[in-house]
Write a structure and sequence with these properties.
It is a single chain. This protein has about 300 residues and is an alpha/beta fold. About 35% of the residues lie in helices and about 25% in strands. It has two domains: about 210 residues, Rossmann fold; about 70 residues, Alpha-Beta Plaits (2-Layer Sandwich).
Length: about 300
Amino acid sequence: MSYLYTENLTKVYPNGVKAVSSLDLEVQRGDVYGLIGPNGAGKTTTIRILTGILNPTEGEVHFDGNPRLDLNSTGYLPEGASFYRFMKVKEYLSWTCSLYDVGGVPDRVERSLDIVGLRDLGDRSLDELSKGQKQRVGIAQSIVHDPDILILDEPTSGLDPIGKEKILSIIQDLTREGKTILTSSHILPELSRVCSSVGIIKEGEMVLQGSMKQLKKKFSRAKVEVGFESVVEGFEADVEKLEYVRDVERLEGEELRYVITVNDDQAAGSELPRYLLDSGNALTYLDLNRATLEDIFMETMEGERS
């Protein structure tokens, strides 16, 4: 049984807009699960239902064998989180602890600040912090009570590259501590760095879900770019006969360079290079690009449109 899952989750707003439709989501214990989709796909609505902010029109949420999330076991960072701007950082985190039945508050505050790298700013007013620092305070408040699961809605939104890097590093550190994390974003390169599983939603519906390993195997269409010293007669026709080759294209404006799409990652990394070297043609360039999360996302979206 999944650690967190939904059954037939649906949300219809009073104006008739169906934001989430029959959504079945599955998060395993210890996962970093990325909920991805274009803007307006229903990611934030789904998260608000999971955290109890919104009630579903239909469907159920199950967490660790219970019919709802246990808020004492959950840390939550909403998108565009707001703070009590004139509170000091430690004061704010201590106040957060008061919302939960926990002791040892000073130690908890210090530890959460250590994790997000803000120990030296604990006595600063929140109003004095940069946007990136405030976002790290937001993560600190989501972990200060030592929850089992974290739900982070667009945690890197609006941050500069340095700020994004720090947030992603914190997520990786929390994963190593054994936390289960559900995070949403439409910035796919970031999610591909930290996620072990993803769910792709479009117009409120789950269109694809699985571990990164499973999805990369399913969409294992690597592209191999090759170049030769001189023209190779019949190259495209010969290579397309290989059972693991999907297609071959000559690069536009390049007589001696080709892109070969391969259906099997292993073949792309070993069999195809061996074939090319054994062919006797003078190979001058070879570059392998495996399927990325962006490739999986775009192919899924295009498949849904067709």
